[in-house]
Amino acid sequence: MRASGVRYLLGQGVENIWKNRMMAFASFCVLMISLLLVGISVLFFINITSMVGGLEDKNEVIIYLQEDTTDMEISDLYGQLSRMDNIAEVTFYSKEESFEDLKSSMSDYEMLFDSLGDDNPLIDAYRIRVADISRMDETLAQIGALEHIEHVRAPLDLVQILTELRRIITMVCGVIILALIIISIVIIANTTKASVFSRRAEIQIMKYVGATNAFIRFPFFVEGMITGLLAGVGALAVTWLGYDAMIDLLTQETTFMSIFGMTSIVPFEDAVMPVTIAYLGAGTLFGALGTVFAIRKHLNV
Amino acid sequence: MIEMRDVSVVYSGGVDALHHVNLRINDGDFAFVVGPSGAGKSTMIKLILKEINPSSGSIFVNGYNLNKLRRRRIPALRRTIGFVFQDFRLIPSMTVYENIAFVMRVIDAPPKYIKKRVSYVINLVGLSDKARNYPNELSGGEMQRVAIARALVNDPQLIIADEPTGNIDPEMSYEIVELLQSINEIGTTILMVTHEHNLVRQFGGRIININQGQIVFDEIVGGNLINES
Ligand SMILES: Nc1ncnc2c1ncn2[C@@H]1O[C@H](COP(=O)(O)OP(=O)(O)OP(=O)(O)O)[C@@H](O)[C@H]1O
Ligand SMILES: [Mg+2]
Q1: What ipTM was predicted for this assembly?
Q2: pTM
Q3: Of A171, B10, B69, B201, whose Cβ has the fewest other Cβ atoms within 10 Å?
């Protein structure tokens, strides 16, 4: 195809939008809202995941060691624990340390400790943090296989709740996103249908004079993609403004911050590249897909 | 050139629209196709354009074997044919010039050539002073001349007109046939379907009469004097 042909077809696509501007505007709006909702769901998902991740990072497994374990064996054990791939952090928690902690946490009952004198009834332990709590069982089994371990205390309730939470969030967001994608495509398909209808006379003439199918379809493609792209730009702008405003609001909300910590909110700047690409890409893609379905059904070329 | 060998068309409803038709129209011919309503004239044209396929028999048009022509090659076939509709089918939002240039653009013709060629055909159909007018500012005869210019502009080997005079005054009809004849003299094959026996009688030439899906008469007759058989 010559350059003048491409220019002509692009022009026709833009003209389609103008001729069909009410429908184009309506589908721009619906598509923008859909993209926004998809975007918000995704950002929500990213943040929830990040927050759950923050909670997960607070997991702590305590491994109590047998009383007669030698210093040598304790440091051996350190090496073995650190080498396990799902263990993110290992700290030794000596019985002296835990005794001091216990004392300070129960300072009102100092007398009780006085009677113990230097006798320390506690035992040495390792505190570890697991990297991926969904693999907790596997890791516990590995730890259980080591020697000199008295017993292990793991936050199994937390693991279960968080794993379940993650699963539900993923599913809900997935369903919402899928539904919105379908809605967007249907909307664009309808606009294309209207556009094809408003050009049916031209299309018929084109078929009779031997225009190729590609030539007949292309302007509608352009129309769908431009509408989608513009919707993507609109959604991006709204998301950016809205997200920053929301972060400001949340940062002032101290209870929220104390639970999840500032670090668990993903700043928009961090996500700007993927979000931009996703919005523009998704807008253009939905526009193109909607058009393809409509063309196949209504253009019949 | 058009050639049909033993062509039959049975529509899905069971209508036997064409029945073992044999026909040959050579390059440079001018032929009228006449016959009563429902005889199968439009069906024959649809076959030539490969809008429909025959139930049996073979068809050759401008060097293409339509039985073997793949769907995606249909545009190539249609570029060798110009089509004129009874109801003109001009685009109301385009001027005369744009209506004609449009069909060159959509087959990706070079822009420079489009200008020259459109001016040439507008001149040929005698509408140079109406090039910037819109269809609703034209008479029926003028609109049909625009449609003929549009059919001609891509320089087809064959022009098919399905009742081109059906929607215009009898005096205008005469002009339209004259125009088609002058195009034929330049070298384009013309196939014109019509109901108007008077017109055919006046002009004469090759007349193909179809009735109930069969060719009942196919001969060259002299103009003006002759009665239809
Ligand atoms: N798509 C179709 N499906 C079923 N039957 C059809 C179809 N098109 C035409 N027919 C039938 O085939 C027969 C021939 O129709 P055709 O349109 O070829 O006639 P025609 O000679 O062009 O008539 P007219 O002069 O009225 O235009 C008619 O009986 C018509 O009803
Ligand atoms: Mg007919």
Answers
A1: 0.91
A2: 0.76
A3: A171
